[in-house]
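ok so i was messing around last nite and threw this chain in just to see what happens. nothing serious, just curious
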Amino acid sequence: MNDRLTHDERKVLPDSVYGLPERREYPMPDAAHVRAAEAYFRYCPENLKPKLARAILARAKEYGVDVESPTVLSYAEQ
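result:
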């Protein structure tokens, strides 16, 4: 996968790979998408940021990605 998913590719992804599965937003099926979710974290609604931050860290660990954003790390602690 590259860093862009087509509509059809997104449709077949399981909910478990999304940072916000109930909204099917922030897909993270691979390391590149974990990095993209970290980069686009600022666009997440404020009330959902802690949940997304924890999802990013979980997927990052799975793919061996170092999360460097202090913002993501601080929200993950909430």
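not much to say yet. Residues 7-76 form one domain.
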